[in-house]
Amino acid sequence: MSEVPSPLAHHFDDLTQQKEATTLGMWTFLVTEILFFGGLFAGYAQYRTLYPQAFAAASHHLDIVLGTINTAVLIASSLTMVMGVRAAQLGRRKQIVIFLLLTIVLGLVFLGIKAVEYTHKYHEGLIPGPGFALQGEERMQVRFFAFYFLMTGMHALHMVVGVVIVGMIAFFAWRGRYSPEYYGPVDVTGLYWHFVDIVWIFLFPLLYLLGRH
Amino acid sequence: MSEHVIPVRTYYAVFAALLAFTGITVAVAFLDLGPLSTVVALSIAVLKATLVLLYFMHLRYSSKLTWIFVGTGIFWFLILIAFLFADVASRGWIPPAEGWNVPR
Amino acid sequence: MSTQVAGRPERPELVAEPRPNYLANGYGIKSWLLTVDHKRIAILYLVSITVMFFLGGVFALLIRLELLTPAGDLMAADMYNRMFTMHGVVMIFFFLIPSVPAVLGNFLVPMMIGARDLAFPRINLLSWYVYIVGAGFTIAVVIFGGVDTGWTFYAPLSTIYSNSNVALMGIGVFITGFSSILTGLNFIVTIHKMRAPGMTWFRLPLFIWAHYATSLIMVLGTPVLAIAVVLLAADRIFQIGVFDARQGGDPLLFQHLFWFYSHPAVYIMILPSMGVISELVTCFSRKRIFGYTFVAFSSLAIAVYGFLVWGHHMFTSGQSIYAGLLFSVLSFLVAIPSAIKVFNWSATMYKGSISYETPMLYAFGFIGLFTIGGLTGLFLAATSVDVHVHDTYFVVAHFHYIMVGGAIMGFLGGMHFWWPKIVGRMYPEGWGKFAVLMIFAGFNLTFFPQFVLGYMGMPRRYHAYPDEFQVLNVMSTAGASILGVGYLIPMVYFLWSLRFGAVAGPNPWGATGLEWTTPSPPPTENFDVTPIVTEEAYSYSKEEPEVVGGTQSTRASLR
Fold first, then answer.
1. Which of A185, A151, A181, A209 is nearest to A14 (CA)?
2. In this complex, how many residue pairs, one in chain A and one in chain C, have their CB atoms less than 8 Å apart?
3. Is the ipTM above a cut-off of 0.85?
4. Which DSSP state fits C481?
5. For chain A, which chains pass the contact test of at least 3 CB pairs under 8 Å?
6. What is the pLDDT of residues A172-193, one digit of tens each?
7. B26 and A68 in contact by Cβ < 8 A?
8. Could you read off the pLDDT of C342-372 as tens digits, one per residue?
9. Domains in chain C: boundaries
10. Are the C-beta atoms of residues C394 and C460 closer than 8 Å to each other?
11. In whole angstroms, what separates CA B23 from the centre of its chain?
């Protein structure tokens, strides 16, 4: 096992203070993310209120099967993530790595399905911009797709960052860096991952489930 | 480090509940509930998010300070929505003056 | 001025192992660019914001030159649009917002609470690099011809009709916002988790309360600006109808998202300076602050309330009049916590032992000018008045009174007050007084005529104006020249003092506060031993406290 540096940073008094600060720091960052996605939700809410028929019609173009599968995939990845954090709390090195790798796999599955969906939209000419296929009355749907791509795109970006970070944490875990006394980085990575899951929990019904009856 | 370790059973239960609620929200989408469908969909989403917050993010076992931070974030988002809609919803309350073309 | 070494009382524990101060602890560019020491990062920020202040000042100079004459003769209208836009963008995002928090806040927050550093030193350094990247984008935009939409980037001008570098500028603003978010996040966690033993919330210096409140705003507001800019860029590049009325979009949505941040942003710009004033007024009146709890909570109240009033920027934009009513009432109420501060500072000075060193002169200037600026804000909060003076020079004068007469004077007052702590040298007091008086005179000559101009109807953001407005404009430009020179003087003597200023001891002002218990400049870890706090803040006594080190001239001047 390689020599691990002391986990206590020079400016903290003890590991408890460090863990509390790290955790509070991540929660503060997540608050900024609530407002960040919140801005997009606010814009979405305004236009859905103004143009309910256009939004309902546009939502039909989304693949509800893929969307539901993705939701399940992401929820499963949250389960594997929290199991990884639990393994870190209990000092089970191998388990941490396995669960984090599972989380990454599920995250990549999610991103893969999103890529498939985006490709479909491209071929259907539903990407807002000069090539937008719907014209006339149907052109009012462009705003739905603008928000669809911006919101899911922003979400996907956060997923990519999340996958990279989980990968790094998995690597450090494999090298034995974490223990029941020091597992803060695993914990806060989990918090981030779950938050991204929560964003999707709201995106899914608002984007995929309009006007289905 | 004395932090509460949540039993695996709880995590599996939450996972099952989340999947169940996902199924419910998809099923309900196919029913014609009129304006109520938005309320139901959002309520289920809030419920799912709450489960993730409380158990997966162990908010249930976190300090009061953390609760305040989460609550503040949500409340601030609601301020944005509320005041934005205070404008958007009430724009039509005063009819435009004679002669103006108003888009639908 | 000779370099007198002030007497340093014998402190055995220091004599045994004198540690290098933070400036001497490591030389070379890598030790600065890869530092995680909050004090060095503060210096990095100081240099950066000074450069940006110059850039913004050049634009201001060109604006005032153009406005010397009624005709648009110095530059075409389009070029003028770019001048005031870049002036606003640079001054707001790259000078005012970071100034006190990123320089004085970064330096002092850990020291004032008795900590060795901020909670996340590497994120602190990251925030500076993010600022530099954002500044780089802005300078690139300037080189490519600037932006002409006003710093407010309203759609549809910014999304459809402008042929300037809107998207590039948007990216720059988006990036810079994260510098703010990271700083705010760092301060919040630091203040919650790293206070020294005995440093309870209500023993904190009010500077800390002010920075905590500021950090709340940074964290809660800036992300919404980021989204506003993302939507703006997307709409501009892809023409997707987010804000385009022709396609069913709502231009007002942009304004809502923009002002949701940008109104609280003005409180980001003023709250830290208010924190500085609390420190200055107590020290130079040798008195406890009057109503500590009220001042502390008023900072929080401003931060919270500031989020409820943004629609007062949109009274004439097509916003619903009922929403306007709501925002107008709330805007009247938001003045109350600011007024509480002004009353409490005044009450602190009452029966205090006041001395008129340069920092205190800045504090006096702040209180007077901020009050004028704040009161004129009430005029603007009244919808009926705003309809007439919106987009006129009345608004321009209002916010410059607060931002320049208030925020910048607070920043300069703080820089003078803590300069001996930061660099270990005193600035020349005579020149300090001269500069502040020049700044005060120049400032009022520049901006008071603008109240009159606005009231008389001169619109803002116009490069030409009717002849009858010329006299006041000439006065304004004359004032601006004086103001500009006034700002240059401290720049010169601060640099001069690095080599020739009187060496300062730990506490040349005899002030209370943990930062004054360290050597000047402090060692990298700030404290030998974590201090234990037993006293309330501002525990000034009636007798003259022992001035630990420091030149006698600073205390003896002009009593």
1. A181
2. 107
3. yes
4. H
5. B, C
6. 999 999 999 999 999 999 999 9
7. yes
8. 999 999 999 999 999 999 999 999 999 999 9
9. 36-552
10. no
11. 17
